[in-house]
Amino acid sequence: MGADAAGRLDAWLHPQAPGGALPDPVGTAIPVFFPVILLEVLCSWHRARRPGSSAPQLYSLRQTISNLSAGVLMILFTIFLKGLHVLPYLWLAEHAGRLPRAARHDSWWLDAAALLACDVCFYLQHRFMHATNLGWSAHVVHHSSPDFNLSTALRQGAGEGTFSWLFYLPLALFCPPEVYALHRGLNTVYQFFTHTQLVGRLWWPLELVLNTPSHHRVHHARNYPRSNFAGMLIVWDRLFGTFEPEQPSVACLYGLDAQVRTGLRLEGRVLF
Questions:
Q1: Cα–Cα distance between 151 and 209 in angstroms, integer?
Q2: Any bridge partners for residue 254, and if so which?
Q3: What's the pTM?
Q4: Distance CA 159, CA 139 (A)
Q5: Which of 13, 137, 142, 248 is least surrounded, with the fewest CB atoms within 10 Å of its CB?
Q6: For residue 141, with 0-12 CB atoms within 10 Å meaning exposed, 13-18 middle and 19 or more buried, which class applies?
Q7: Which domain does 37 fall in, by range?
Q8: Which residues contact 67 (CB under 8 A, 6 or more apart)?
Q9: How many domains is the chain partitioned into structurally?
Q10: What is the pLDDT of residues 86-139, one digit of tens each?
Q11: Nearest CA to 153 among 161, 163, 162, 143?
Q12: Do 24 and 183 meet the contact criterion of CB atoms below 8 Å apart?
């Protein structure tokens, strides 16, 4: 490989903003995800083993292997799609960004605006994933497990990354790349912790504003209406009429109506 080709490949795999490397909260958090998953496994096992307990074991070996392998494949795809996610944003921010450079650093209002904007963009992306054939073909992998636990958060379809970046491009007009990368990554990290059955309903002001495990259980439940598309803030679902509360009398049933028979089929993890 020539020097020019190697340089272009490096620029694609490791795109950088003018100020240097972009923040990567997800990459930083990945080493934390696995110990937290193990802790949930142990808590689930202990809860199910208590005398007189009717609590189910939340992890099955087959589905957990499928979830973790899907997560590994997603990481590999993300590495090769890094340029697609970042370079168009960098170009648009450089040529069409409207934010004065003096306001781009250490501005609390910019961070607040970026947090809200990234979350709105995720909400729109997530609704698209559920409302269209293209979106669902990419997203169905995430909903295909009959288990619901922290490892389910890693069960992602690689195809989502080929077009999810389009929903965030408008942010380049006002949000510097490093701020965008930070808040989009934090949004993803937050969502990991909503995939659990061990956390019940939280204090009502938090349930009113945040996307909590209770709200996200409803989103994954096949016996509830398709709802609760939020990433961090459930307020978007409340505003746009897609909110559905968890009912104590209606236990959530997870997975697809037509369930894949094995958790190890390659196409079940990779196909779009």
A1: 25
A2: 221
A3: 0.88
A4: 8
A5: 248
A6: buried
A7: 3-270
A8: 145, 147, 151, 152, 154, 155
A9: 1
A10: 889 999 988 887 765 555 556 888 999 999 999 999 999 999 999 999 999 999
A11: 143
A12: no
